[in-house]
Design a protein that fits this description.
About 5% of the residues have low confidence. This protein is 8% helix and 47% strand. It is mainly beta and 473 residues long. Among the domains are: 31 residues; 93 residues, Immunoglobulin-like; 139 residues, Neuraminidase (6 Propeller). The chain starts with a helix and ends with a strand. The longest helix has 30 residues.
Length: 473
C-alpha cells in the first residue's frame, strides 16, 4: 500500500504543476491590458466632420507606447490627450475629416503602466457625414441639426421642456453649451456633445437667468450674461438688469467682468482672446485689454457687430439721423434732395479700429439700412443685410450683400424683396453661408434656414421654422 501510494505522487505533483501554471497563465492573461471601447464605434455612419476619437482601456496605459501603435487614415494633424487616470486617450483633429469619406484606424501594440503588453491588434472604421448646421426650432425652442445633403431631415439635439434660449459651440467642436430655460423663467447653462446626448450641468443659476454663452477662442473660458429678477413690462415677474460674467471651465469659478454699476449684455470675444460686451450705460461696446484697460467704441444702436480675424477692427451698425427728416405714414419722400426714411433715420456699417477708436463708414453715401455684419473666416469679405430706404428702391426685407473688408466691391446676393435675411454664418472655406430668412410681409410665416454660395448661386432651404443657424464642426 505504501509503495502504491508513493507511486502516485509524481503524477499528482505534475497535475498540480500544470494547474498552477494554467492558473498563473490565466491570471497573466486577465491582467493584460485590453481596449474596452472606441468612439466613434466601428461602422458608425454620419459622424461629425470634427469628431473626436476616444479609446478607453481597462487599466492605466503608458502614453507613448499607445501613441506609437495608433495610426489613422487619413492622417489628419491633431492633439492627443489622456485623462487623469490614464485609461482614456482622446484625439482631437485640428481640421475637418473629409465630408462623406471613411476614416480607418488601427492600434498595434502598447503597454500598460505596469509594463504588461497590449497583445490584441484592432482595426475599425467609421463614415463621416456631410456637414451639418445647428439652429433653434420648435415651441418651446430646442437645439436641432440638419445635414446640408439634399432632402436631409433635421433632428433634435436637446429636449429641454422649457426650451433653449441660445447656445455656443466650443471652438474645437467638442461640445455645445446652451442656456436651458426653467419653469420660473430663469436659465441654467448645460452642455451636450456635438452630436447630441445627455446634458451635463455647466453652471446652475438659481434665482437668475444665465444667457448668451460665448466661448473664448481657446475654449477654456465661457462668458455669459447673468440677469437677476426684475419686474416685467406687464407688471409680472421677470428677469433683467444684466451683467457679464466669465466662467473658467477648469475650476468652475465665475467672476464679474466690467463695471458692476452698469448694465452689460451680449458678450463676445476678439479672435486674440479679449472679452467684449455692450455697456448699456455708456452706449458703447467695451473691449477689455490684456493689461486691464478698456476701450469703449461708441454705439447708440446696441446691435451686435463682428471682429476682424486679426482683432484689429470692429464692424457694427450705427444709427444715422437724417437732417430735415420728415416722419411719414405712407410712401417715402425727398426733402431738399435728401431721401427720407419712414422713421427719419437709417443705419450704416462703421469699421472702428480698436486701438485708436477711429471709425470709417463702410456703407458709403447711400440712404440704406445696413445690419448683421459678419467677417468671413479669412477676413477678406463682410456679409451683411441691406435694405434701401429711398422712395423708388424701398423694399420690406433686407437682402444679403457682400463687400470687401474695406467697403469696396459691394454686391447683392439675394433678390427676394419680401424676405428679410440675417443671422449670417460663414463656412470656414469662405465659399458658403447659412442664414435665417423670414417673410417681412406675413407676420405668421415661420422663419427658415437657408444655404447659399458666396457667389449667390445654389440658394436652397435647409429647414423650415428655424433661427440662429451655426455651422457644426
Amino acid at each position: 500500500m505504501r509503495r502504491r501510494s508513493a507511486s502516485r505522487w509524481p503524477g499528482l505533483l505534475a497535475l498540480a504543476g500544470l494547474g498552477l501554471a494554467a492558473g498563473l497563465a490565466l491570471m497573466a492573461a486577465l491582467s493584460l491590458p485590453h481596449l474596452a471601447t472606441v468612439s466613434p464605434a466601428d461602422g458608425a455612419l454620419a459622424v461629425s466632420t470634427r469628431a473626436r476619437l476616444s479609446l478607453v482601456f481597462d487599466q492605466p496605459m503608458e502614453a507613448a507606447s499607445v501613441a506609437a501603435g495608433l495610426s489613422l487614415d487619413p492622417a489628419l494633424p491633431g492633439d492627443l490627450a489622456w485623462d487623469a487616470a490614464g485609461t482614456t486617450l482622446t484625439f482631437t483633429p485640428r481640421q475637418s475629416w473629409p465630408p462623406g469619406g471613411q476614416v480607418r484606424l488601427s492600434l498595434a501594440g502598447g503597454r500598460s503602466r505596469l509594463g504588461l503588453p497590449l497583445l490584441e491588434r484592432r482595426t475599425w472604421s467609421f463614415t463621416v457625414g456631410l456637414e451639418r448646421v445647428a439652429f433653434l426650432t420648435g415651441a418651446p425652442a430646442n437645439l436641432a441639426a440638419v445635414s446640408i445633403a439634399e432632402d436631409a431631415q433635421p433632428g433634435f439635439l436637446t429636449v429641454e421642456p422649457y426650451g433653449v434660449a441660445d447656445y455656443a459651440i466650443r471652438p474645437d467642436g467638442g461640445q455645445i453649451v446652451y442656456a436651458a430655460r426653467r419653469a420660473d423663467g430663469g436659465a441654467d447653462l448645460r452642455a451636450i456633445p456635438i452630436d447630441g446626448g445627455d446634458p451635463a450641468e455647466v453652471l446652475a443659476c438659481p434665482g437668475a437667468a444665465c444667457l448668451a454663452p460665448a466661448f473664448s477662442p481657446d475654449g477654456t473660458r465661457l462668458a455669459y450674461e447673468r440677469q437677476t429678477p426684475a419686474p416685467a413690462a406687464d407688471g409680472g415677474a421677470g428677469f433683467g438688469d444684466p451683467r457679464i460674467y466669465v466662467l473658467t471651465l477648469a475650476t468652475g469659478q465665475a467672476a464679474l467682468a466690467g463695471d458692476p454699476a452698469s448694465q452689460a449684455r451680449s458678450p463676445a470675444w476678439t479672435p486674440d482672446g479679449r472679452l467684449s460686451y455692450y455697456d448699456a450705460g455708456r452706449q458703447a461696446v467695451a473691449v477689455l485689454g490684456a493689461a486691464g484697460g478698456v476701450t469703449y467704441i461708441p454705439s447708440s444702436s446696441g446691435e451686435p457687430g463682428t471682429f476682424s480675424p486679426d482683432g484689429r477692427y470692429y464692424v457694427f451698425p450705427e444709427i444715422v439721423l437724417l437732417e430735415n427728416a420728415i416722419t411719414l405714414t405712407g410712401t417715402l419722400a425727398v426733402t431738399e434732395n435728401v431721401p427720407v426714411s419712414v422713421a427719419g433715420f437709417y443705419s450704416h456699417l462703421l469699421r472702428a479700429e480698436i486701438a485708436t477708436n477711429a471709425a470709417q463708414d463702410l456703407s458709403g453715401p447711400g440712404v440704406v439700412e445696413d445690419a448683421s455684419p459678419v467677417y468671413s473666416v479669412a477676413g477678406d469679405w463682410l456679409a451683411f443685410g441691406r435694405k434701401p430706404l429711398v422712395d423708388q428702391a424701398w423694399q420690406p426685407g433686407r437682402q444679403l450683400w457682400l463687400m470687401r473688408a474695406d467697403g469696396s466691391e459691394a454686391r447683392q446676393l439675394t433678390e427676394t424683396p419680401e424676405y428679410n435675411h440675417s443671422a449670417f454664418a460663414w463656412h470656414p472655406d469662405g465659399r458658403r453661408l447659412v442664414l435665417m430668412r423670414f417673410n417681412a410681409i406675413d407676420p405668421n410665416a415661420a422663419p427658415e434656414i437657408w444655404l447659399i454660395n458666396s457667389d449667390g448661386t445654389g440658394a436652397r432651404r435647409l429647414a423650415a421654422g428655424g433661427y440662429s443657424p451655426e455651422w457644426l464642426p
